[in-house]
Amino acid sequence: MSHTAPVVDLGVVERLDEKIRLLITAVERNRTEVTKLRADNERLGKEVDGLKAQLTDAAGVAVELQTMREERDQVRGRVSQMLAALDQLQL
User: Fold this and answer.
1) How confident is the model over 32-67, as pLDDT tens digits?
2) Smallest Cα–Cα separation from 20: which of 28, 1, 80?
3) How far apart are the first and last CA of the chain?
4) Which 3 state secondary structure label does DSSP give 7?
5) What gap in Å lies between CA 63 and CA 70, rounded to an integer?
6) Calpha distance 54→61 (Å, rounded)
7) Distance between CA atoms of 91 and 81, rounded to whole angstroms?
8) Residue 89 — very low, low, confident or very high, per pLDDT cuts 50/70/90?
């Protein structure tokens, strides 16, 4: 009984080796990209939080501005009434 060793085509093994190396490179590149994207996502999340805080502040300022406009209109009305009363006194 003679045993023969299987014939191995070195070209197939080399192509397989090259494919494995390419896959490893792709996985490493993807890991690097995922790490970068996570950092970008965290930075953008903080930026969004900051912008939300600014929006809340701006909404508060808008309410204050509206209140001041209403007070200004009241003052103008009172001044107009006072001027009209003074005009009537001088007649």
Assistant:
1) 999 999 999 999 999 999 999 999 999 999 999 999
2) 28
3) 140
4) coil
5) 11
6) 10
7) 16
8) confident
